[in-house]
């Protein structure tokens, strides 16, 4: 059972993150000051420091909330029988979210966190990895999964950030469509093909099927996945 103190802390935390998110959306990154957020949330400034440590901690919480909302939309997408088309849908959803929430998207994607991605960002990459793996399992992935994931992530995020930075009256959404199709052409084939000859091709094919096996322990599966990724990348 939650104590009154815990419930109050959670309530304050939610109000503060909500206030910071609203200030970010309405007035931009510079408006999210400790003084402005405390006033908007109706709390004292020390409360922010106690709950978040510092301003960066608050911004991390705002970004995590943004990722959570975006992940909810992604998880709600229904899969089709065509994993490549599903990748297109995910790319388009990412663009729509970015253009609808420009300041939040920029905070989420254009400000690297010390120590690596946040848990929410890592979960988002996991969803992308799952999409790429489905393409690999269908025999339609042209390159190894790790490089395909990096390419889609970099190109999709970079294109969206570039469009966010462009004035709306000069914004050409077809740029995103062209980038999307260029990436898809680079990483996929039009139809299932036999694995490329040699160990790299065999590694890509086996790596895609690895999650479906249940004869290995988690540690063995992780080690084999790492080895297969190295073989595929070397090819």
From TrEMBL:
Domain of life (superkingdom): Bacteria
InterPro entries noted in UniProt: Homeodomain-like_sf, HTH-type_TetR-like_transc_reg, HTH_TetR, Tet_transcr_reg_TetR-rel_C_sf
Keyword terms of this UniProt record: DNA-binding, Transcription, Transcription regulation
Molecular functions per Gene Ontology: DNA-binding transcription factor activity; transcription cis-regulatory region binding
DNA-binding region: 33-52
Range of residues in the leader sequence: none
Domain HTH tetR-type: residue ranges: 10-70
UniProt-listed Pfam families: TetR_N
Official protein name in the record: TetR/AcrR family transcriptional regulator
């Amino acid at each position: 059972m939650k104590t009154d103190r815990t419930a109050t802390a959670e309530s304050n935390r939610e109000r503060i993150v909500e206030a910071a998110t609203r200030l970010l959306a309405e007035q931009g990154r510079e408006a999210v000051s400790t003084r402005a957020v405390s006033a908007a949330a109706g709390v004292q400034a020390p409360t922010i420091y106690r709950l978040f440590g510092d301003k960066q901690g608050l911004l991390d919480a705002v970004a995590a909330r943004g990722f959570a909302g975006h992940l909810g939309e992604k998880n709600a997408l229904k899969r089709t029988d065509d994993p490549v088309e599903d990748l297109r849908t995910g790319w388009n959803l990412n663009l729509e979210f970015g253009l609808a929430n420009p300041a939040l998207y920029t905070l989420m994607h254009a400000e690297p966190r010390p120590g690596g991605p946040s848990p929410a960002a890592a979960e988002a990459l996991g969803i992308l990895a799952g999409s790429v793996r489905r393409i690999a399992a269908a025999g339609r992935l042209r390159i190894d999964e790790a490089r395909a994931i990096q390419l889609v992530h970099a190109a999709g995020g970079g294109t969206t950030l570039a469009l966010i930075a462009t004035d709306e009256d000069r914004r050409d959404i077809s740029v995103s469509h062209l980038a999307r199709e260029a990436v898809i052409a680079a990483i996929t084939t039009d139809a299932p093909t036999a694995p490329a000859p040699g160990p790299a091709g065999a590694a890509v094919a086996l790596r895609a099927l690895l999650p479906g096996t249940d004869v290995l322990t988690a540690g063995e599966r992780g080690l084999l996945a790492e080895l297969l990724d190295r073989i595929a990348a070397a090819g």
